[in-house]
Amino acid sequence: MVEAFNQQFIVVVPAAGVGKRMLAPCPKQYLKINDEAILVHTVNRLLSHKKVAKIILTLSDDDDYFAQTMLANNPDVVCVSGGKERVDSVLNGLCAVDETQFPWVLVHDAARPCVSHQDIDLLIEQCLSQNSGGLLAAQVVDTIKQSESPSTNSSAGSTAKVFSTIDRSCLWQALTPQMYKTIELKSAIEQALCHGIPITDESSAIELAGLPSLLVSSSRENIKITRPEDLALAAFYLNQQRKEEENRCA
Fold first, then answer.
1. Is position 153 within any domain?
2. Does residue 135 lie within any of the structural domains?
3. Taking 60 as the threshold, does the pLDDT of residue 154 lie above it?
4. Which of 105-114, 223-232, 239-248 has the weakest average pLDDT?
């Protein structure tokens, strides 16, 4: 097990989406924080972790932005074609992983640049020690309401009617990275796609395959940039994290 804890990992980062909810002129992963694209912040955060060997980026075939980033010439970044949906992009990324060299794989959202090394450490440690896949997650703290019908508009100012209040005591918000055995995750996704079952994250595919997932508590700074107001919050967290790192190194 000591040897297992010393192994290196590949992280698949699906980055072929367009981020419609950002209402931006470019895909949200290329919006800038502190003069660098969100994708650059995310990939650099992952590659600076001592256990991350390479990043597999899944990009849209008509992506005109990636070549303009500093990542384009990074030998530790491998690019493959993305798919129509996030799950298709993840599967394409998994197909580029040598499961004999990398028996475990992590998948991380391109728009989560604030994930901490401490949380990645904890995820890897828990998954390896318990020989089970898992994901970073945050316990739900707000009161959760279920609406009468699915919302057709998720923008600010939209309305719906309450159907019920959900017991939040066992509810968790799924975050990333999510970490699973490479062969098991690839097989689980392929099975779900074969049966036409919608997959929103890696954990949902693993659940359908009847395999366990650990919920590993994560910092709430690990936000996903989804709406315009998230940019300012992510910038705040990144600046705070940079200052904390500088203080530790002083």
1. no
2. yes
3. no
4. 239-248
Query: Residue 68 sits in a domain of what CATH number?
Result: 3.90.550.10
For 105-126, write each residue's pLDDT tens digit.
999 999 999 999 999 999 999 9
- In whole angstroms, what separates CA 130 from the centre of its chain? 22
Among 82, 20, 13, 21, smallest CA distance to 41 is for 13
Helix axes 86-95, 182-194, angle to 10 degrees: 140
Q: First-to-last CA distance in the chain?
A: 34
Residue with tokens 């998720």, as numbered in its chain: 154
d(CA 139, CA 217): 7
Total number of domains constituting the chain: 1
Going by C-alpha positions, the residue among 38, 31, 34, 43 that lies closest to residue 73 is: 43
| Token code pair at residue 225 | 């940039």
Using CA atoms of 140, 146, 149, 154 in order, give the dihedral in degrees to the nearest 10: -40
